[in-house]
Amino acid sequence: MKIVMFSAQPYDERSFDEVLQRDYASRGFELVYQKAALSAQTVALAQGGEAVCAFVNDQLDAAVLETLHGYGVRAILLRCAGFNHIDLEAARSLGLFVARVPAYSPEAVAEHTIALILTLNRHTHRAYNRVREGNFMLDGLLGFNLHGKTVGLIGTGQIGLATARILKGFGCRVLGHDPYRTAEFAALGDYVELDVLLAESDVVSLHCPLSEATWHLIDAARLARIKRGAMLVNTSRGALIDTHAVIAALKSRRLSALAIDVYEQESQLFFHDRSSDIIDDDVFTRLMTFPNVIVTGHQGFFTAEALREIAETTLRNLDCYASGRACGNALAGDG
Ligand SMILES: NC(=O)c1ccc[n+]([C@@H]2O[C@H](COP(=O)([O-])OP(=O)(O)OC[C@H]3O[C@@H](n4cnc5c(N)ncnc54)[C@H](O)[C@@H]3O)[C@@H](O)[C@H]2O)c1
């Protein structure tokens, strides 16, 4: 069976080839790697494939799914946790099998979240450049003790919980907001309403999925209720925050700092080398001008452990589909 992988990077090829050869050598799976992201313009690359393997910025709207179905594609393997980028209703009505990797390494994203908080707080990004230029002045690098501060986590699922565990070790007071409450989180922090979390947290970190209900969850109205001088961190999905409103909040000093690993228009930028191009996204370039803003290019997941887990789970999902076994990670078309 031929599987066409879109948005394939060299590290994807390495991790998938390794697991394929180790565990599925006799199964007849042929992986074809395509660097291009999946979109209406690139969908033709899937011709001849029975399955498509897609990542976070691949476009899986109804039109693309219909074209894939027309080519004979019957399975969509998402090699990510989030599934906001696929029209599941369309997939179901076409009878497609869709599966994802629900949790490959919550710790990978949680640890990156903590790295961003610490970097922003202690200005390590600026200190690094200063020292290399022979400037050993500390002015402008003043931070605060994380110990004793309040951190609010919006979403207390796998990544929110892993983040809470680390923050407890720092001696933080942890608040959580989630429509689905768990005893594991309640043992570490206090569940509160969103407005309370925003008003009391020194750091607000987003760990909920993107959906219609959470689109622009952090908008101008919510930013007006956030504690003055709070730090905002988003390692979940770009469209959880209204970037225009966040820029206004940075300019008014309502937010003291911002760290994002995800960005609403990231598909134009992230996972590409744009260093020789003129970037025409004025919102993004405005963000780049703030000394108190850090952007990383969707690398929260990017650890050796997570890459291995992504390859193993994706190929296990494929194997379930190919052998007609029930798949615990299926979102559509199972059985
Ligand atoms: N930066 C990265 O590399 C990276 C990697 C993996 C996942 N992610 C993102 O992280 C998100 C969280 O991942 P996870 O594994 O913890 O998912 P999860 O499903 O385990 O947890 C998500 C939690 O959010 C809660 N939630 C839903 N709506 C909410 C709302 N309106 N307010 C507050 N909470 C709400 C859910 O009840 C759930 O408990 C994913 O949806 C994905 O977008 C980012």
Automatic annotation (TrEMBL):
Segments passing through the bilayer: none
Domain D-isomer specific 2-hydroxyacid dehydrogenase catalytic: 4-330
Keywords, ordered alphabetically: NAD, Oxidoreductase
D-isomer specific 2-hydroxyacid dehydrogenase NAD-binding domain location: 114-300
InterPro entries named in the record: D-isomer_2_OHA_DH_cat_dom, D-isomer_DH_CS, D-isomer_DH_NAD-bd, D-LDH-like, NAD(P)-bd_dom_sf
Coiled-coil region: none
KW Cytoplasm (keyword) present: no
Pfam families per record: 2-Hacid_dh, 2-Hacid_dh_C
Family of this protein: Belongs to the D-isomer specific 2-hydroxyacid dehydrogenase family.
Identification of the protein by name: D-isomer specific 2-hydroxyacid dehydrogenase
Protein source organism: Azotobacter vinelandii (strain DJ / ATCC BAA-1303)
